[in-house]
Amino acid sequence: VWTKEEFDADYNAGGRTEYTSMFGKIVFEDENAPKLVAPYDGKTYYGIPFEIKPDRLNKKVEFETSWLNQYVALDENATGVSNGSLFGSTGKGYRILMRDYDKGLISLNELDEAGEIAKSTTAYLDVKSGIFVFPRTSFGTVNTEPVIATPFDTDETLTQSKVKASAWTVGSFTALSISYTTRGGDTHNIFIYDNEVYFGVDFKTSKDASGTAIDGDACYNAKHLYVMRGDDQIFAFAYTGTEMSKRTDTRGVIRASSTPTRTTWNWLFPVTAYSRA
Asked: Is 27 a residue whose pLDDT tops 50?
């Protein structure tokens, strides 16, 4: 007995019909329903790695430079397999899988010499820009060893002046505020707090029209700091003179259904993620 199952085209494969039985599986691909183009398809990525150690907290931070020549072209030939390496990978390429477009979840599956998956890492994607974030090592977290993977620069064009960042403590939590300006002149603000990643935000001194926009490297000791998206407040912080504290004023805090891409981490395992409505 053969069981028939039809699949629409998605970001991992084209439309297809699969027949399964005790003898195996037969797949018929639909030539009229090609794979959807993912935000990362055909782009070459270089990484901007950070290593947030205790002595680098509550101050401006710079990205690490020892891995800048590592790059990967994601799905360059629309085969699902990518060449290149990033940050200590096997160097045999990746198989990229879109896990959840709305939540911005993808899997970076490193391949071994036989083309089999050797290690899988969850990455967190801004579907608008194509930028994604992942932990540099299997022992790190997005708070301690985040890598910002960008398709907009190379190791020759990435400079410290383009990436303005600071790391700071909020009670027992760690925050990382990043303002990354591409060689094309576009600035992308990324906020990482309590193992969560927020894309497409603004850092401001007030949540109303009088607020001044500041870069990520000025956040760690800002007298008042609001993490905003448009007119919506995500977080509010205040500087105590020694560290930042989270403000309890939550009026205007946006709901999950309208947040920018937000990814919650629990060490190596993703817990929740929310993306733009």
From this structure: yes
- pLDDT tens digit string along 57-74? 999 999 998 777 777 777
Cβ atoms of 198 and 254 within 8 Å: the answer is no
* End-to-end C-alpha distance for the chain, whole angstroms: 43
3-class DSSP string for the chain: CCEEEEECCCCCCCCEEEEEECCEEEEEECCCCCCCCCCCCCEEEEEEECCCCHHHCCEEECCCCCCCCCEEEECCCCCCEEEECCCCCCCCCEEEEEEECCCCEEEEEEECCCCCEEEEEEEEECCCCCCEEEECCCCCCCCCCEEEEECCCCCCCCCHHHEEEEEEEECCEEEEEEEEECCCCCEEEEEEECCEEEECCEEECCCCCCCCECCHHHCCCCCEEEEEECCEEEEEEEECCCCEEECCCCCCECCHHHCCCEEEEECCEEEEEECCC
pLDDT at position 269, please? 30
Strands of the sheet with 224-229, listed across from one edge: 202-204, 224-229, 232-239, 244-246
Average pLDDT of the segment spanning 106-119 = 84
Instruction: Write the single-letter amino acid at 19.
Output: Y
> Residues 218-225: contacts with CB within 8 Å, 24+ apart?
218/164, 218/166, 219/166, 219/168, 219/175, 219/177, 220/58, 220/59, 220/60, 220/166, 220/167, 220/168, 220/177, 220/244, 221/58, 221/168
pTM for the model: 0.81
Q: Which residue has the tokens 């939540």?
A: 103
Amino acid of residue 66:
S
